[in-house]
Amino acid sequence: PEMRAHQDKWAEKPAFGTPLEEHLKRSGREIALPIEACVMLLLETGMKEEGLFRIGAGASKLKKLKAALDCSTSHLDEFYSDPHAVAGALKSYLRELPEPLMTFNLYEEWTQVASVQDQDKKLQDLWRTCQKLPPQNFVNFRYLIKFLAKLAQTSDVNKMTPSNIAIVLGPNLLWAKTEGTLAEMAAATSVHVVAVIEPIIQHADWFFPEEVEFNVSEAFVPLVTPNSNHSSHTGNDSDSGTLERKRPASMAVMEGDLVKKE
Questions:
Q1: Element (H, E) at 192
Q2: Residue 145 domain-assigned?
Q3: Residue 127: domain span
Q4: Within-domain flag for 72
Q5: Alpha-carbon span 127 to 139, nearest angstrom
Q6: Among candidate residues 166, 168, 165, the one with its CA nearest the CA of residue 151
Q7: Pick from 23, 32, 110, 156: CA 20 to 30 A from residue 15's CA?
């Protein structure tokens, strides 16, 4: 009920199901709120979770988290203990976009590149297609891929290799603009999507050589240790998390915005 009251007071449209460009423009963000919030939560508690994105979450928990993310609320503390719900919310956000993150416009191009046999040519063609994404799609796609590449680094523990990630997440990133159920579209697309997403995750640093700051909105409480806001390779072996235990759910920036709006 508290969440619903919060939603009712929220003047903006929800993030879920809203075109990416519209959500970014309205919220003044570079990375969509559900993408950044879910990535920041998963960086702290989900990286070693076996079968992340593959194991389903409880429906009521998922619904509650989506409602929290929909109105930029800071009530995210309880979801730390359930990385599968967080991964589920991220998948839902991507799937509910009116147009896939990798766009309808480039669908034919992506699927053509998928069947290129020569690996070097394939990578070059994929890189060229990436460059054709609209700027806001490109930035969010890069952010997500860099995170997925980081997740794959611990695949010995979490079992999420680039191939496994591509299989479970790919159909939420690209689908055909045709009539039919989501399941039919996903089936028709999935082989191509895996052939596209897997090499991009495998070679994420070649596709996107620049560093990505995951805490891009600075709405999340960074780690106490100096030098780095994200856990790149600071040798902090005892703690592979990226955030102080204070929780990014403090989300001070967004809460401040909310108070102003109200």
A1: helix 182-202
A2: yes
A3: 13-207
A4: yes
A5: 14
A6: 165
A7: 110
Q: pLDDT tens across 199-214, in order?
A: 999 999 999 999 999 9
Which residues, in sequence order, are CB contacts of 16 under 8 Å at separation 6+? Answer: 34, 66, 69, 70, 92, 93, 96
Summarize the confidence of residues 229-248 as an average pLDDT.
Answer: 38
Q: Collapsing DSSP states into helix, strand and coil, what is residue 190?
A: helix
SS3 (DSSP) at 243: strand
Alpha carbons 195 and 207: distance in angstroms, whole number: 15
Q: How many residues are listed for the chain in this entry?
A: 262
| Cα four-point dihedral sign 118, 119, 124, 125 | positive
The CATH number assigned to the domain holding 147 equals 1.10.555.10
- Count of structural domains, the chain: 1
Residue 62: inside a domain, yes or no? yes
Residue 79 lies in a domain: yes
Confidence of residue 70 (pLDDT cuts 50, 70, 90): confident
Largest Cα–Cα separation, the chain: 56
Segment 127-173, tens digit of pLDDT: 999 999 999 999 999 999 999 999 999 999 999 999 999 999 999 99
Q: Per the confidence metrics, is the pTM higher than 0.85? A: no
Q: Torsion angle of alpha carbons 8, 9, 15, 16, nearest 10°?
A: -10
Under DSSP, is residue 63 helix (H, G, I), strand (E, B) or coil?
A: helix
